[in-house]
Write a structure and sequence with these properties.
6-stranded antiparallel beta sheet, 52% helix, elongated, 5-stranded mixed beta sheet, Beta-Lactamase, 3 domains, Heat Shock Protein 90, alpha+beta, 16 strands
Length: 557
């Protein structure tokens, strides 16, 4: 064999370092860029979704309040006695007692008016006091437009339709509801509707007290009104325009930014992981370099090694290093992939963020495929399971899932920290829990609901084995995931654990969540059951065998 000159050792060692550092450094740098970008995109998407949901919620709150005022108005205006006392035979005492004071004291109506066909106020009451006032002249064109719309909203022989909107009254913004005063009569057994040209108007002051009450009820922090004439610039704002289309105010509030909160705790974690990975890469490269130098010196002294052997050793070192990097890269990819999938399931199909999430998920899946290919060369699995502390695994799962669960869902956790060690790999146990949580969140469709997770030890014997007859006697960890979602009928319940069976729309799910959980649990000697009825939520019970070490501990204590 040809000898390796002594002077060539440093150059060969330097080449070895370059051959190791460049690919490993490239993989490390690319992983840093990809993971950082994915985390930033996920955080930005979470913030944007939270802002859009709060805008939708604020609009729904105001619309609901407007609808309530309209229903109150039509109930009063479509009343034969109200028409008699306000239009045909005006009775100011009756109007004060049965309209003005009643609306102010019982429904917090700021003001009420009876407007005749010539747009004169035959009756005016503001904050429980009768006044001589013509609101049509005082509040201008926007108020007049609402009254005219109320007169023509429906024919005179039909039930009146209330018309509502906003008007500016000095430093107040009023929610106004106007309905044509209409009576009815029973003629020959048929109820005949008879409308008038007079209009009953009710208003409610959109003041700080009302907004504080609405904000507290609907979790809109610092819900307040800005009376400036400038259109809103903030993302969490709702413009208020009067009947003429003029901007008269803006509703503002503060919203949570779950993406920012996620970045605050993820950034140091990711930075620590990158530092750890960088240290491992440095140690691995240094170790590989020392090994390669030793091999080269041994070849020079013994004259027995050839270049093929050197190349083989270099490739082996690179494979070991790549396997270590792949393992750490895979650990980083998994929570991002789960968060992205849960986030995608939580938004609508037409959401603009869905394409961004699909790109994120595709990139994660490609990365996972690459990790799997690399791991094939270095994987060693003897099939043994050392056991995992199930309490720690469930805690970790809840922490990972917290960023993907909508704020409308309340999470209740009842975990017994002394449950023990289960004969399941941590990754498998985490997969089971995350799949169950994801299904529960999907079942509640982002509406207000409760997700309950409980963990406790359980003893299976002849008396307690009716729910899980296939389980042998023994001690188990009992995990319960319960939701208040739409539930399942008997047909869906019977097929819940079938692979690829899903009730979601095409493209929204694979149908592998529950079947994967079922496969893992049963393969490890456990059992999984589900109970549900339509519109009553679902409960999933998981039993995982505890290791023998728990029995020894129980016997000694």
């Amino acid at each position: 064999m040809p000898q390796t000159p002594k002077d060539d050792v440093p150059s060969i060692a330097a080449k070895t370092r370059r051959d190791l550092i460049f690919p490993v450094g490239s993989v490390f740098a690319i992983s840093v860029i990809i993971i950082s970008a994915l985390v930033f995109i996920a955080a930005n998407s979470l913030n944007r979704i939270s802002e859009e949901k709060s805008v939708h919620l604020a609009g729904s709150v105001i619309a609901s309040h407007e609808d309530t005022l309209n229903r109150l108005n039509i109930d009063t205006a479509y009343w034969d006695q109200a028409v008699e006392k306000l239009v045909y035979n005006f009775d100011p005492v009756w109007a004060t007692d049965n309209i003005g004071n009643f609306l102010y004291e019982s429904f917090d109506a700021y003001s009420s008016y009876a407007i005749d066909p010539e747009n004169r106020a035959t009756y005016s009451m503001v904050e429980g006091e009768r006044i001589d006032d013509n609101p049509v002249e005082r509040m201008g064109e926007a108020f007049k437009i609402l009254i005219e719309k109320a007169r023509i909203s429906s024919p005179l022989d039909e039930v009146p339709t209330p018309v509502s909107g906003f008007v500016r009254d000095d430093n107040r913004i009023l929610l106004v509801s106007a309905t044509r005063l209409t009576t009815y009569a029973n003629i020959d057994g048929e109820e005949i509707t008879m409308g008038t040209r007079s209009v009953l108007v009710m208003t409610q002051d959109i003041n700080a007290e009302l907004l504080d009450e609405l904000g507290a009820s609907y979790l809109l922090t610092n819900f307040h009104l800005d009376l400036s004439s400038q259109p809103p610039q903030a993302k969490t704002a709702l413009a208020i325009n009067d009947g003429t289309g003029k901007h008269i105010g803006t509703l503002l509030w503060e919203t949570d930014h779950p993406g920012t909160a996620m970045l605050k705790w993820m950034a140091p974690v990711i930075a620590a992981l990158f530092l750890l990975m960088g240290g491992l890469v440095y140690l691995a490269v240094s170790r590989a370099n020392r090994v390669s130098q030793g091999i080269l010196h041994e070849e020079m002294l013994r004259h027995e090694m050839d270049r093929a052997m050197i190349q083989s050793q270099k490739l082996q070192a690179l494979g070991t290093l790549a396997g270590g990097v792949a393992h750490n890269f895979n650990n980083l990819l998994q929570p991002i992939l789960m968060l992205s999938l849960s986030l995608r399931n939580a938004i609508t199909d037409n959401s603009p963020e869905r394409n961004d999430l699909d790109v994120m998920i595709e990139a994660c899946n490609r990365g996972a495929d690459l990790v799997e290919q690399i791991s094939l060369f270095t994987r060693e699995d003897d099939g043994s399971i050392a056991g995992e502390n199930i309490y720690a695994v469930v805690q970790q799962g809840l922490k990972l899932a917290s960023s993907t669960i909508p704020s409308t869902i309340t999470v209740n956790a009842d975990l017994d920290e002394n449950t023990g060690t289960v004969l399941v790999d941590a990754t498998e146990a985490l997969t089971v829990l995350m799949n169950l949580i994801s299904n529960a969140v999907d079942a509640m469709h982002g509406h207000v609901g409760t997700l309950s997770v409980a963990l406790s030890p359980a003893e299976i014997d002849d008396d307690a084995n009716t729910a899980t007859p296939t389980l042998p006697k023994g001690r188990y960890a009992h995990l319960v995931v319960r939701d208040t979602g739409v539930g399942m009928d008997s047909e869906t319940l019977n097929r819940a654990f079938e692979p690829f069976f899903t009730t979601k729309a095409v493209g929204d799910g694979t149908g592998l969540g529950l079947s994967t959980a079922y496969s893992i649990v049963t393969r490890r000697g456990g059992a999984i059951t589900t109970a549900s009825t339509p519109q009553s939520g679902a409960t999933i019970d998981v039993y995982l065998p505890l290791s023998a070490a728990n029995d020894v501990y129980s016997a000694t204590t």
